[in-house]
Fold these 4 entries.
Entry 1:
Amino acid sequence: MTRFDASEPAERRSLFVDAITAHRNRGSQFLTIEVDERALEGESAPDPDLGVPWLQFADGVVNLDCTDGELEELKALLGSFPAFKIDEITRPESADGNNVRVSAKADPNRIAQFLDAVFREVYGLPEEFRAWVVAV
């Protein structure tokens, strides 16, 4: 990989495909994508108290943290991605929110579409947010 961030929707999805491919080719433990902190500014931004939204991908599973409201948005989003399903929801007592594991048995392009949709629809980010691949 030669680039690690993108802000335009098509560029972000292309970045995610490249990161998934690099992750698989390297046999790395996981892939992590984070939102640029500047996306947390403004009225429609996710709750900043929960930290910067992030997604991890490994072994056909997307891992994320979300609030109860965001979990409902995730469940609604899965209707548009029938090959994806929630495998596990953990509600740690020591943390706000939920940790969710979603099976993603699909090609890199479809996984990239899902990742981008999670950031925009579940976390409520604007279409032009910047995402960073922070671990491959």
Entry 2:
Amino acid sequence: MKRLETNGVELACDAFGAPSDETILLIAGLGTQMIRWTEPFCLELAARGYHVIRFDNRDAGGSTHISGRAPPDFGDLAAALGAGRLPDVPYTLYDMAADAVGLLDALAIGRAHVVGRSMGGMIAQIMACEHPERVMSLTSIMSSTGNSALPPPAPDVMAMMAGPAPDPVLDEAGYVAHGLAFARRIAGGGYPFDEAAARRLIVEEMRRAGDRQGFGRQIAAIAVAGDRRPRLATVTAPTLVIHGSDDPLFPPACGEDTAASIPGAELMLMGGMGHDLPAELYAAVAEAIDRTARARR
């Protein structure tokens, strides 16, 4: 792992495959770290002839944490948005997209195939809209457009995600149990839940750098992002939208809306997949990303 300076922050990243190959940039989701793009999945992509880069977003893992800014109060945030006011937030998804573009600059990579999951899908969408010259193809996984008319997350999932969690310093076992309960809830019904693998990820993220306040700042960035559909209509890169039929956080209509908003986008609805990427789907998802990347060629 190395840390590179970009856009006023440092981003932790690592890579797989040959640097001479075309690059796939993997963008992580809300409150998670680059290791959610597991090594076996990254190697699936590298085996198809790609230089695969994964990184920690700001406020996650080994990247810069914006500790000087407290996350906005969720109630105040909702009240401001409900009144039509844009609240003051530490940063936006557009800043995070600029981080990713800056990472490519720091690595001397002109263009990349950009793949994002959940919040990372939103960041990838913004890159394709605002920095089209840097995006060879776009894959948006388990994400959404910011369209306020779309179905909301399941209430219990939202409560688990945004509610209080045990402090990992004071109650490590409770923290891990809370994370496992959430991971199990958002997993789809089509594949066995791998509790051991989920536990390893939760513990590794905790060891690398857990930051509940960083999670809150990232939520604020999502909250003020607005509806991206008008800008998504300008995307020209080959686009793939992957979404789970069992996703309780972003229901399937969110994936359908994303694909409908981007000219020529392919929608790949994965039966039995939730708001996660089970190992059983690594090969199929990697093959679909490769197919979309080859369309650019």
Entry 3:
Amino acid sequence: MIRKATSADGNAVAPLLVQALGHIAGIFAGSEHYEDAIPLVKTFFERNDNQYSYVNTLVFEDETGVVGSVTGYDGARLHELRQPVVDRLREVQPDFTPGDETEAGEYYIDCVSVDPAHQGKGIGKKLIAAFCEHAASLGFEKVGLIVDKVNPDAKRLYEDLRFNVAGEKDFLGHSYFHMVRKVLH
């Protein structure tokens, strides 16, 4: 079942967010061990004022609990939603200044993740479809995301889900394809 997340989902969703963030989680934690970012990410998830918040998240729950999540928001709100994260990271990394991975006019998928024990069951595809339906219900014409160029499997998955490469972006030390899917015709 797919449902809106609540702040009580933090223990389940924070590791999923860290898994999706990958090397970015390492930047957040100041560590090569991405899982070190789980407490910080959980704190942001449980708040309602930032890009990783439960208010921006849908979860997939089965009989074992939450096993997948998708987090995203209106690209026009990126700076506003990212500011609490940037403020916190600048406490230890004063020069932290990420570029923009999204833009106005698109509903942006920031993180999509499925617990490794539940991958290959179509959960990620269902979450992305639900996210796209949500974006359309809000009047957005397109959904955007970035996919690391070193992850061709993810790029193919998104292409299978009708996302097309719209450009390229450099973000926090990696090169990404910016991909877009039209959701309103």
Entry 4:
Amino acid sequence: MPATTPPTQARVVVVAGPSGSGKSRLTRRLGVPTINLDDFYKDGDDPTLPMVELAGGDPVVDWDSPESWNAADAVRALATFCAAGAAEVPTYDIATSRRTGMHRVSLDGSHLVVAEGIFAQEIVTECRRLGVLADAVCVTQHPAITFVRRFTRDLREHRKPPFFLLRRGLHLALAQRKIVERARSLGCRVVDGDTAYAELSRLI
């Protein structure tokens, strides 16, 4: 990832965790500017997208692999935000698997920006190297609770066909421990949502 100008206005709080673990709820409670890292997914027709075999069907795009996501673009946007206090970031439609436009995120008087997403742990090292990292947490809870909340949310938002969501949900439930351990190995503190809120509120 490219080097950039040192930050002058803001620092980054990274919020990682399995899909459905409560990251978005935490960021809403914190009430600070947020950059949704899931908006940096690759488009669905990108030839570099990874594939995975899920139980009960043909191989599909592995949207839970970091290779389906553009970390370099995410870090550049955060570096710009920290230096300038605002940045233009993509708007991504998960149902159609593509970027649909751009939108502006501004500091609005805060000294922090939350970078939240299922691949957030992948940028911790680079944010620390650039001197913009304020903290990094991985939000987690029991896999059964995560499964139910994720499946309910994805059905409600029509993110993908129901059968795909079920297959993906079972796959992620089995993989949750590995996901959390990877986040820990990359520099995230593993906490539940309420603990994360209490600790990050002190920074705010």
